[in-house]
């Protein structure tokens, strides 16, 4: 019987829990919160067996409720006491200032923490799935399966990949569209499109910052004051160049991404030819950053450039030793172009062949011709427009200094029409000097393909106009000889 009672006792709530005097100061009016205030609380250590089997649960609940009430009453009481004591101080001028300062600092602290938390979320989401903008929807694009597969491998490097890459091709061959189409479907890619008006360090840094969702950390006001006074705080203002700040942040995010996925993220820099033309020094810096990041396995850079100065500059530096895969985006083959025009856009084969004849499978031209066909312009009229644009290029080139066009460009064009392409060496020899060769390449009649080191006509319309120009020159020479 004694054993039974001992077990029952242990199941009842302890009296001391109801008193709680250990936590309350002596001034607290305990009399108001006596045990008798607990409704139905009866502390029997014996009693009937039926009470022993049901009461413990009810008693425990009541005791818990009572304890909560007691705590609330204590807080209210102490609150009142504090308010009464502090009231005169708070109503004084210095008291009000203190309250203002405390509230101001507190809200500033909460706001800064909130903004910085949002900032971190934004930064991490920049490398998340689908952060690369897709090509505009609603268009039927030419299928380019093979090159898309090659790009997928380049944009999804293995964990031990340690080389940066390059995507090159003549203007309008569809590099940007392809890169965005592929990158849009994969995580871990930061796509930066260099704007024509964004080639200074600051402008470029702003473009990267936008893609990365980067903005400087929000700081608490006393950090700002202390750093203004020259007193170092744990959160000093970042006074380094904006480009360095942005790349440091990208490096930090790249490390986080790498840790999470065991794969290096990829930084795609599109239109680097704009840097080669407007700020070649910055392109050199970016190539060095790309080399170091690839060496350390932090991130992989992919440079996207039109053929011309940019790939030549990249290939001409020692940092090119870490250049890995180079993907050349070429014009569509005749078969691909006809499939695009006939099967994907329902054009008659004769029309499609005529369009291919003056566009040479350059996707930008095919798309433009298609738009004009759809608006009712006959194919001969479109051809005429393309040739007129090509003639404009030659007209500008005719203004070249020292009569370079007549003396050098026409013989080179003649040679190219016969051979299809000429080597870089032959081109420079025909031009007479490297400077003239450079000037000729800059007038957009000829293009040097950096990988094959072959010089070709810039596009099919240019080739067609070159035929005209070379033919006219030969005709004039013949007439002149005849007269003589
Ligand atoms: N696969 C495709 N199908 C249909 N149209 C395309 C395709 N790829 C590109 N285009 C169109 O061709 C034009 C040129 O494409 P894009 O800008 O991608 O070429 P690019 O090589 O990046 O040009 P640039 O050398 O000037 O940077 C654009 O109008 C684009 O919409
Ligand atoms: Mg482009």
UniProtKB/TrEMBL annotation:
<dbReference type="InterPro" id="IPR027417">
    <property type="entry name" value="P-loop_NTPase"/>
</dbReference>
<feature type="domain" description="AAA+ ATPase">
    <location>
        <begin position="161"/>
        <end position="333"/>
    </location>
</feature>
<dbReference type="GO" id="GO:0016887">
    <property type="term" value="F:ATP hydrolysis activity"/>
</dbReference>
<dbReference type="Pfam" id="PF13401">
    <property type="entry name" value="AAA_22"/>
</dbReference>
<protein>
    <recommendedName>
        <fullName>AAA+ ATPase domain-containing protein</fullName>
    </recommendedName>
</protein>
<dbReference type="InterPro" id="IPR003593">
    <property type="entry name" value="AAA+_ATPase"/>
</dbReference>
<dbReference type="InterPro" id="IPR049945">
    <property type="entry name" value="AAA_22"/>
</dbReference>
